[in-house]
Amino acid sequence: MNDNLSLKEKEKAEEEMIQQAFQELLNDYLSTKHRKRVEIITKAFNFANQAHKGVKRRSGEPYIMHPIAVAKIVCNEIGLGSTSICCALLHDVVEDTDYTVEDIENIFGSKIAQIVDGLTKISGGIFGDRASAQAENFKKLLLTMSDDIRVILIKIADRLHNMRTLGSMLPSKQYKIAGETLYIYAPLAHRLGLNRIKTELENLSFKYEHPEEYHEIEQKLMSTAAERDKVFRDFTAPIREQLDKMGLKYYILARVKSIYSIWNKMQTKHVPFEEIYDILAVRIVFTPHSLEEELNDCFDIYVAISKIYKPHPDRLRDWVSHPKANGYQALHVTLMGNNGQWIEVQIRSERMNDVAEQGFAAHWKYKEGGGSEDEGELEKWLKTIKEILDDPQPDAIDFLDTIKLNLFASEIFVFTPKGEIKTMPQNSTALDFAFSLHTDIGSHCIGAKVNHKLVPLSHKLQSGDQVEILTSKSQRVQPEWINFATTARARAKIASILRKEAKMYQKEGEVILNEFFKNDDIRLDDSALDKLTRFHNFHTHDELLAAIGAKRITLGDADKNIFKEKQGKSWKKLLTFSFVGNKEHEKESNASVEAKEPQGKINPKEILKLTEETISKDYIMADCCHPIPGDDVLGYIDEQNRVIIHKRQCPVAVRLKSSFGNRIIATQWDTHKELSFLVTIYIKGIDGVGLLNEVTGVISRQLNVNIRQLNIDANDGIFEGRMKIYVHDVDDVRTICNNLKQIQNIKQVTRVED
Q1: Which pTM was predicted?
Q2: Is 95 annotated as catalytic?
Q3: d(CA 491, CA 457)
Q4: Does 225 share its domain with 159?
């Protein structure tokens, strides 16, 4: 009886919690400027609450709390209206219950049904358990995004809430979701202008993948906060005084670099936390005198503060006159503070700040009450996505990388000969620019004139360049172009043209081969193709046929001679062997595309213990990142059921987490300094007599560590060196680095990948 009573009390408490959470959502919605369509939101909530009744999340809370939380993010953090809030509440109903999209359409109408259908198609992550499904799911995501941008915005909100509650998941699942988030959701949030959400997704991913580093940087930020606050107060005091004189309504914020951004910079620059000098930036947000004066006010503020502090001559970024493709507008100027450090100042109006934080997609077409002038750049990007989707992509990972290329790219502005301005991703080449104008121009371009000077197609463009593309009717797309094309559009077009040409050449090659063998009574089959492919050092039959068709190979007597051997039984054996080999190749090929579930005893849900015995016998240390005991690592079960250990931040591991999450295993080190591992230590400092002696003395005599290789290069009084040394674990590396830093003239010591 008591059990029943306590169960009823528990259910009542849960229902009260649910109703309270929904009421908070309604209150948030009612405080926005959107039309007050409370009735349809309440209807969607009641429907979802009933559909998910009795279902719990892994954390133990009622499942409906998740859709409510996603709806709150959609309302408060992205700024969408009632349609999107309804879709957020309903986003898991079709996936997890017996209701269909038709049911949703009958009750809530076609628009809500269409968005829920889009969300259902991309449920379970962009990437499925199989690589072929992965590419298809990603294509579905992009297609639905092209139809209605709200699909991806709600999906990003869904992912943000999942990341906020990731602690209740299994470690292997955490790595998969965190890796997928960093690989594609954070770049998508960035591309759609959701800056605050992008930063939080990066930080949360980093927190789960590298908890120790995360907390270490967090502690250092906290311990240096008081010092930063003083710098901020001292730096902004004269600026406030000047802005008050100008009669502006404004507020000034301190913007602290995110933990993930700091760590990323530490990795790429090989510097410690103490040498990251741009942790603090200042943001001025003002109310313009009028909408027409908004741009002028930005520049007036810039001129005023440039009289107080010296501006950096090369670091003025004008995103006000030329907004970024995601709608971002601001004026960035870097000023020399009185403390001798450069400090970036971002100048934004309130409107610009809203767009920067929430993304103009939220204020764009679907904001109830009208469109926006910012529509152009996003439309262009969605059009590029559609063009890429029109061409079938043979490799799922390549497809993802092609799309991802332009998600995180900074932008530059270049001009056509007629003075029209074009936005291009940073690091774009003249070839990328040619393809951005038109596929025909790209296909036939032979060079370019940049600022009236002749340059090759691989020339990297700078902001402000004037670019004229030179073309020739006789020019054709060259295979090597793919190596220096950087934009998704150019790479996709080049790959598509090369694939079509290769198929054409393959057909021609087959005709030439048939004709060539006809008189010698040699049948053109897989066996003959295998022999010829090996003879000409190609990997596949298609490569051989394309080379013959393109006249890169001329067939002669040498080709016939390889078939002049005893036939009969041995010939049949060869045919049989070739056939079996081919089938095996087919199986292997399918396996790589479909990413089958790993077979055998290894259970991805377990946490693997990495001991001296298992490292030597059972597991493989990845060559791409050379993990050692103490590194944050994970295991990957490959096609042969072998476990390969990668560092979690290794680029290969990032792709594996995103693509083959079902094969990722959480791992723990359990070693006792018995095995030795080779690592590379990078050192840099001021050259001096006896320095090399001191370095080798610290390593071999003080620490008793074996040096396998030592390369030192000195130039103009500065030396750089790389040492390959044997260590037991990360603690050894830390000790070595700390001891080397004690040498007077050494300024930088860090472990690097070879």
Answers
A1: 0.70
A2: yes
A3: 14
A4: no
